[in-house]
Amino acid sequence: MEKRPLRVLVVDDTVVYRKAISDILAEIPDIEVVGTANNGKIAMMKIASLKPDLLTLDIEMPEMNGLDVLRAMQTDAPDVGAIVLSTLTHKGGDLTIKALELGAFDYITKPETGSIEESKKEIKKSLALIIKGFSRNLEMKRILRGVKLQDSLYPDAGSVKKGGIPKYTVSVNRSLYKKQKAEIVGIGISTGGPKALSEMMPHIPGNINVPILIVQHMPPLFTESLAKSLDAHCAIHVKEAADGEIIEKNIAYIAPGGKQMKVVAGSDGLNRIIRITDDPPENSCKPSVDYLFRSIAEHYVGRSAGVIMTGMGSDGTLGLRMMKRNGSTIIAQDETSCVVFGMPKKPIEEGIVDIIAPLDKLAVEIGNCVKKA
């Protein structure tokens, strides 16, 4: 059967962006632009009549803004995805985090400098990658609709094998799993991350008694908005990390966008310190999960847990290998609950993951492997 093109509706109140995005999409293979809309009310009517698979969605629009569209889609068009367009500002960051929490698949930022042609090239590069991830996610959902899940929720987890991806709710590889408790948790996450974190982090107890360090692939300003949003809904304190601060228990530190974050030893030899650097990107990422995980592996030998969650690419795999060699417990989000399975997939296939769990079980599994007071 011939694969049908992905149907996209372009929603933006600015005629320049409606034209630019439509032109860019026309250059991407297997994409059909089915229409445009200049506000949210028109967008909802066209969703009903045109049946798109995906929207490109401006957030700030008259009459009905992008956030209201996403809220309406939860009821009226739950199977339609959205990629939001955002400005690289504090307000843009706040609105984007809200959009992602409301179910937007991902976002791109509108270029602020350069010619129209340079801006179109930058948007096309970002949009093509995100649409590729969305298409894979859409195909996985279609496949899963036809799969009848097994009744057992907690099977014997000997099913975790190198090259094999378990289908069960929680799988534990008892041949790998270490009983030594972790004193720090590192989390790496990307596409689909803000919504996943907003669902998982509120289930982390405020007295978990370990610090949590998080790398979420995001630009500057957006990570600050993410930290504030999570902090308002979590028992554990969540903040954007600052250079030089002592790592403390019961705090979740989010790496600042556009910077790298690592752990270093304090001058007293007892405390561990956060270092925020301007070191180069790794895996085209800044912040990078690998960059953080390597430092955790070095400074918490046998006393850490690495958690890899939804996201495109393979950032985090190299760092997890080092953590695994140094005795860490490795936890991966399962395929069915990931927006994009790229980041967890490779370490699972390499056989270095101890626990594979869906999003709604990750907080419990993290709690099980940490050192309590």
Beta-strand fraction estimate: 15-25%
Q: Main β-sheet: number of strands, strand sense, barrel status?
A: 8 strands, mixed
Strand order of the largest sheet: 6-15-14-13-7-8-10-9
Radius of gyration: 21 Å
**Unreliable stretches, pLDDT < 50, 5 or more residues?**
148-168
Q: What is the percent of helical residues?
A: 25-40%
- Backbone shape: globular
The helix/strand order is EHEHEHEHEHEEHEHEEEEHEHEHEH
**What is the tally of beta strands?**
15
What structural class results from the helix and strand content? alpha/beta
Chain-averaged pLDDT: 89
Number of helical elements: 11
Ends apart, CA distance between termini: 58 Å
Q: How would you characterize the overall build of this protein?
A:
The chain is α/β, with parallel strands linked by helices and about 375 residues long. It is about 35% helix and about 20% strand. It contains 11 helices and 15 strands. It has an 8-stranded mixed sheet with strand order 6-15-14-13-7-8-10-9, sandwiched between helices. The chain has a 5-stranded parallel sheet with strand order 2-1-3-4-5, with helices on both faces. Helix 1 (about 15-25) packs across helix 5 (about 115-145), helix 4 crosses helix 7 (about 220-235) and helix 8 packs parallel to helix 9 (about 315-325). The N and C termini lie far apart (about 60 Å).
Question: What are its keywords?
Answer:
373 residues; alpha/beta; 11 helices; 20% strand
